[in-house]
TrEMBL record:
Keyword Hydrolase attributed: yes
Gene3D superfamilies in the cross-refs: alpha/beta hydrolase
Keyword line: Hydrolase
Pfam family membership, one: Abhydrolase_6
Source taxonomy: Bacteria, Pseudomonadati, Bacteroidota, Cytophagia, Cytophagales
GO molecular function, one term: hydrolase activity
Protein's name in the database: Alpha/beta hydrolase
Amino acid sequence: MAAGLPVFYLIPGLGADERVFQFLQLSGTVHVLRWLPPQSPAELLPHYAARLAVAVPATQPCWLVGVSFGGVLAQEVAALRPLARVVLISSFISPRELPWVGRLARTTGLHRLVPARLLPLLPRVAQWFFGARNGGEYRLLRQILRDTDAVFTRWAIARLLEWPGRPWLPVVRIHGTTDRLLPAGAALSQHALPGGHLIIISQAAEISRILNELTTVE
């Protein structure tokens, strides 16, 4: 990584936006890569990642920090930006890490039968899955779910479940030890932190420390 202040590109998770990064304190230049509308229901993930990568200069050393589904996109963008380093938060590198229900949906296409707006209508169920531990986390999760675009959600879930993974790509992984959405991730991560899928919020101070420390040793 070149000398000078580090550059971070943050990619939020499915249905989320820059609100999930509001508690991070990073030493450097920070950009949030906001989701783009899919060009069609069949747009492939590499094509979508190429459009997202337009915001990341090809000659710029940087850090791509992806949360959950944003971690999948971070890996796809990194395949197009060789100077980028990848940090995954509450994410995965292979479909083998999906829980059994995700593997079942991947095999059977069961997810196509689930209404895309179901999760926003069940915030307390989502609270359990995401591990929102207190009133502030729950309120933020409820707001994000309320603002989730159903068309984008359906597209993203389909792309996520068909993603072959990039297990050979060098990444740094940060994961919650009680993550119910991706329970296998903690054992495969360099940094396992107490908490669930929303450690980007509940462990923001420790994640900030890890990210800032990474930029000083690279």
